[in-house]
Amino acid sequence: MMRLKLPNGVTTSEQTRYLASVIKKYGKDGCADVTTRQNWQIRGVELPDVPEIMEGLLSVGLTSLQSGMDNVRNAVGSPLAGIDPLEIVDTRPYTNLLSQFITDNSRGNLDFTNLPRKWNVAVVGTHDLYEHPHINDLAYMPATKNGRFGFNLLVGGFFSPKRCAEAIPLDAWVPADDIIPGVEGFRSEVVKRLPQQELERSSEEDLVQAQWERRDYFGVHPQKQEGLSFVGLHVPVGRLQADDMFELARLADEYGSSELRLTVEQNIIIPNIENSKIEKLLNEPLLKDRFSPEPPILMKGLVACTGNQFCGQAIIETKARALQVAEEVHKLVEVTKPVRMHWTGCPNTCGQVQVADIGFMGCMARDENGKICEGADVYLGGRIGSDSHLAEVYKKAVPVKNLVPLVVDILKEKFGAVPREIEEED
Fold first, then answer.
1. Is 31 annotated in the active site?
2. What are the Nitrite/Sulfite reductase ferredoxin-like domain coordinates in residue numbering (predicted)?
3. Which residue in the list 117, 192, 280, 331 is annotated as catalytic?
4. What CATH number was assigned to the domain covering residues 300-419?
5. Does the active-site annotation cover 362?
6. Alpha carbon 187 to chain centroid distance?
7. For the segment 341-369, what is each residue's pLDDT rounded down to a tens digit?
8. What's the Cα-to-Cα distance from 277 to each of 79, 84, 246, 265, 330, rounded to whole Å?
């Protein structure tokens, strides 16, 4: 597997085609994932090919440098940056600046290694909090102070097998021009390292509205640019094959501006589409057969980590199982609002089950006969947005074969689901 640096989840059709060409030659193991860090991962890569692949990455403006292990992970921002009519700030300049600083412009920066695994940073650009700031080690929240634009800082959000915690306010505000000095530590250490050795207290002029109904980015939506729209596509559990990527690149070229946007929910947005081309795009086979702009309601919020198909740390298979459970549950009950279901194969929680309405963390369980089998700890009640908080364990070590009836019961009791009428055959 190779993980990339893709600040703000912005990628080009050229980059997408190159990544597709890499995985194409690896057969059934060659695939790509959109990750919960708004990033690409390519899978099936063979070690002898890596030097050539890395040269190819550089040729299309990509790098895998400092993308995993003990480094700062991909800097996330609004997937609608620069095109959202209601955005607070275009996050792209800031996520690019952070990524350049952290990697020393892709030359490597030892000052930002030997960090805790999965050290995450986010820059918030909308009231919708698409960036999930409350689960980042450092999050920049737009706020004005004394007529200047800048950011209040949240710190300390993280997931690990031993402890999970939400980010808390640092009681600090930095002008937009000074976001880089704020990346190096908590308040006392930050103060020591700032040029003025001074850090202003947080601003009360928070630009993010506390009461805001999160918008759905699936489907067609007008941009701030007159005559243009973006289309949000559902990528089932974030998994793509080479042919999917080639086709997405073609669509981005033919209908948009040769650009794609990745989201932390493992989906893809095509921006900058002329309104006159929308109808033709919606009739493209890829949107009809694979990546729907109007996914079924229980699929909308479905997220899954890699699982044990490719990850040695995962205890259970996740992606195919997530789709199977969602499909079976959909046949049994009907819900009126999306329910976010997240799957993760192990306690490292790459699938971020703690932010889900219903989360499944892989474990080993025992069936009714006492036999060891694949199972999941079930989490309930995670929230994102202005009222964010983490989910709690609802039931431990449930055999995976028993998850469908359990989820059906949860949806009925907690989410107002009603049984579907099953048509009787003549």
1. no
2. 1-59, 221-285
3. 117
4. 3.30.413.10
5. no
6. 28
7. 999 999 999 999 999 999 999 999 999 99
8. 21, 19, 20, 26, 33
